[in-house]
Amino acid sequence: MTSPIPGGVTERYRTDVPARRRRGRIMQGVFLISMVVALGALAALGYTVFKETFGLVAIEDTLEPGELSVSPLEKISHDELVAILQSHVSPAVFRRLDGERPFAERSRQDVYDIVIDRVVEPEVVGSWPLNEALFQRSAIETETAHDHPQARLQWKSWVGAEFLARPMSSDPARAGVRTALLGSLWMIAITLVVAFPLGVASAIYLEEYATRSRMSRLIQTNIDNLAGVPSIIYGMLGLAVFVRVLGPLTSGAAFGITDTNGRTVLSAGLTMALLILPVIIINAQEAIRAVPSSLLEAAYGLGATKWQTVWGHVLPYALPGILTGTILAMSRAIGETAPLIVVGASTYIVADPSGPFSKFTALPIQIYNWTSRPQDLFRDIAAAAIVVLLATLLSINAAAILLRDRFSRRVQ
Amino acid sequence: MENTAAAHAPSLDAGGPAPLPMVLRRRLRIGEGIIQTFLFFAGALSIVTTIGIVFVLGSESLLFFRDPRVGLVEFLTGTRWQPTILEFGILPLTSSTLITSTIALVVSLPLGLGAAIYLSEYASQRARSVLKPILEILAGIPTVVYGYFALTFMTPGLRSIFGAETVQIYNMASGGIVMGIMILPLISSMSEDALNAVPRSLREAAYAVGATRLETALRVVVPAALSGIVAAFIVGMSRALGETMIVLISVGAGPDLTLNPFRGAETITGHIARISGGDLSYNSLDYNSLFALGLVLFLITLTLNFVSRRIVSRLREVYE
Questions:
Q1: Residue B15's pLDDT is what?
Q2: Does domain A178-411 have CATH number 1.10.10.60?
Q3: A108: CB partners within 8 A, 6+ apart
Q4: How far is it, in rounded angstroms, from Cα A363 to Cα A389?
Q5: Residue from A263, A341, A393 to probe the interface with B (highest B Cβ count within 10 Å)
Q6: Scanning every residue of chain A, which has its alpha carbon at the shortest distance from the alpha carbon of B112?
Q7: Per the structure, how many domains does chain B have?
Q8: How many residue contacts between A and B have a Cβ separation below 8 Å?
């Protein structure tokens, strides 16, 4: 078919045509299928996360509320609740709770929550993903009635306001992502503060200042290469440099903080900054390159210096592109896990990070940690944490689009 | 970049030596100098980063190989990696790294190329504007999420197809397949760029001699874009070799030398992450061995990226 058509054999080619058309249609289907497989993978991923996040749980109370008082717990008064609490928890615990905040000052709802938490102690004894909960409801009911006659079945969404507000816990039903989320935010803030100015400055240098010398070519090649280095290698660099060598600085020991080693949120943020720097530079370079040269010529023509031109004309024009690139890089940093593991994020942290020198955990670390545990319930909260992570990424990207639109309208 | 730089340069000196009023004469601007110095150092930081990586990996590896208990030959050819009994043979780690990456490429290359051909040669403008962002979503999902997907979706799926006795809970196949899904958008977007770079005239020539759309795509456009597709393949390979989270979660935690993709093993990256995540004392042989592994990984991915960029730039020269 590829050979040139010799004269006088057009008949042969004409008979070929239906078969060639058919082959074309079949292969078009094949190409379409590979597209569909890609979309199907995305759908399967979403479905897997979604069905684990929502579902049925069987909850068993350690102590039946009926045994505590004659009338339902929701109805009884503040004082009765305190009395129940006093008679069912150890005196030490009661004193400690009273010490935190005297019971007389606490609201009825607050005391009620404590009674549920400490005395009734609902415990999740079984959990079923959404698909089973919808289609095998009766089998689940039989199984629960058989295994845990005291338990009640109810719908549960693992992700929710409480999940966001609670700190890490070894009990999956009470665990939350608060510390992890705050850790991620601290880390990303440090990363941005370091990487954004350096990245943009580097791009300005390469695009506007560097002559075509061997040095600038070397820097350019080098940046392209750095963008392809596996993230775990950056983790090792961070471990050796920020955690070990610069340990006195990153642990805060040089500033009088003594209780940590170099495995702090500062080390993680700096490591991440190095990781996303090439991405920021490459995107910023593209944005700067897209600035029409007439704009620069006009500025130079009026006698502006190089920096005046860059600051007053190039940067405002290129800003939407630079911001978009930075936000892309930022979403990469939020989802990166491997370098954090190597740099030494802790997996079990209950206290909120209080500053750049605190130990920390991050959202992806928490997902990894929960995923690698064998119990089913941890699978559920890992899915819930994934929902939180993806929602964070989605809102950041939405913010990026809004920002870009706003800036580009103002400039053009 | 070079074009714009060249266009700007003459405009600066274009004023020439025409007589200027005193106030406009060139004068020393200290601020400009300081700013330019800062910009230069920001640009040079990337070089420092590279030197840092090479120095850190190199010096720790040197400590590792200098140790009398370790030999370079044993490191490269040994078939057991058990630091506790001082066995440092990299083969079990490299073999599983290669197996998972190969599976990933076997999955992602045909699918990615198929999707790219569909997008660039068949899809309407509207279909493309819907499909491309969806592929980009796939590219933006964090790898730890893919790891979760491998463990909770792919592994049970493989076990129900091939039987739970053949497929272990932690196995290379499920990690490899999911890694293939992860690099699919990369391969498809790079290949699509290469296909789009093929001049329209080539396609029109093919249509003019009576080729069907498929014949044009497969016999004219794809061969013309082949080097770009090869580059995509190489970048995909380098990404798969360096990927950590998927293999750490789903492939397993024991460096076994096995060729069976349904068995668990441990890749280079998985091993580095697992060991350095635990309590690790600096200056130990374990610690140094991780950097030797990192050096191997770094050199392989660097070479692959370098080769692929050379190919892409050559492609650009051909058509621009």
A1: 47
A2: no
A3: A77, A78, A81
A4: 7
A5: A341
A6: A34
A7: 1
A8: 277
